[in-house]
C-alpha cells in the first residue's frame, strides 16, 4: 500500500494526491515574485475538477501568500476538454503577462507513485527531496 501526498494536519492543502484520484496533468508558470500552478483531475465516478493558484513570495517584511481557485465540470469527456482548455488558456495568459514560459506535464494516472514521480521530475515542482510514496 502506498502512502499518499497530503497536507499535514492544520495546513492548507491546495491539492491532495491520493490513490485512486486520476490526474490528467499539471501546468506551471514561474513569474518571478509569484508563480502559477494548475491541475485537472477527478475522483472515481465524480465530476472533473480543476484548480489553479497563484503563490506570491514574501518581500519587505510581508509574508508570502497564495490565492486558490477551483472549477468543477461533469463526468463526460467534453467537460474534461473544457477544463483542460481553460487551464491552458489561463496558463498562456499568465505566462504572456509575466513574459515567462508555460510548462505542462501530462500524467493520466490514478497511482500515487506515478503522479508524484512525474511531479518530482519537473524542475519547477519544488518536490526534489520527496521520494514517491512519501509525504510532504
Structure, explained:
It is built from two helices and five strands; from the N terminus they run ββββαβα. The protein is of the alpha+beta class and 136 residues long. The chain has one domain. The protein has a five-stranded antiparallel beta sheet, with helices on both faces. A hairpin with a 3-residue loop joins β1 and β2. The longest helix has 21 residues, at 77-97. It is globular and about 45 Å long. Mean pLDDT is 82; it is low at 1-12 and 131-136.
Distinctive features:
single chain, 136 residues, alpha+beta, 2 helices, 31% strand, disordered N terminus
Question: Major sheet: size, sense and barrel closure?
Answer: 5 strands, antiparallel
As a percent range, the share of helical residues equals 10-25%
C-alpha end-to-end distance = 17 Å
The low-confidence parts are 1-12, 131-136
Number of helices: 2
Give the overall silhouette. Answer: globular
Domain count: 1
- Counting DSSP E segments of at least 2 residues, the number of strands comes to 5
Taking Cα atoms only, what radius of gyration do you get, to the nearest Å?
15 Å
| Adjacency order of strands in the biggest sheet | 4-3-2-1-5
Helix and strand content put the structural class at: alpha+beta
